[in-house]
Write a structure and sequence with these properties.
With 121 residues, the protein is an alpha+beta fold. The protein has one domain: 2-Layer Sandwich (Double Stranded RNA Binding Domain), CATH 3.30.160. The protein contains two helices and four strands, in the order βαβββα. The chain has helices spanning 16-32, 84-111; strands at 6-10, 38-44, 57-64, 67-73. The chain has a four-stranded mixed sheet. Helix 1 (16-32) links the parallel strand 1 and strand 2. Helix 1 (16-32) runs parallel beside helix 2 (84-111).
Length: 121
């Protein structure tokens, strides 16, 4: 990455274990596509007024040449997001799918001939 990764925690105490897992998953993305320019990850607990089980929200923003990719896993989507690691896994899986589509589109652009001209013109 050209810009160092940014990891933010909101509504919760920073966790070395969570940060290590984020860095591990981000490194995996970078092995998949080495031209990632920057990566920003936000891990948060949006509502503190729940009496039972916190639900985590994880947002990932990637900048790649010619665009940005973003994935977010909202707490209302799944009961399983009471586990921060499950929320992270789902968000990273979503952004990896987007990155795979981006790479596929870039490769197809490179494979198409730029301009076809009439023979003998």
């Amino acid at each position: 990455m050209q810009i160092p990764m940014q990891i933010s925690f909101r509504g919760m105490e920073p966790s070395a274990a969570v940060e290590a897992r984020v860095r591990e998953r981000a490194a995996r993305l970078e092995r998949f596509f080495e031209r990632i320019q920057s990566c920003r990850v936000v891990v948060e607990v949006p509502h503190r007024h729940h009496h039972q089980g916190k639900r985590y929200r994880v947002r990932i923003d990637l900048k790649v040449p010619g665009g940005e990719l973003a994935a977010s896993r909202e707490p209302a989507e799944r009961q399983a997001h009471e586990d921060v690691y499950v929320a992270m896994r789902d968000a990273f899986d979503a952004v990896q799918r987007q990155l795979a589509n981006y790479v596929r589109r870039q490769r197809s652009v490179l494979k198409t001939p730029e301009a076809t001209s009439a023979p003998g013109a």
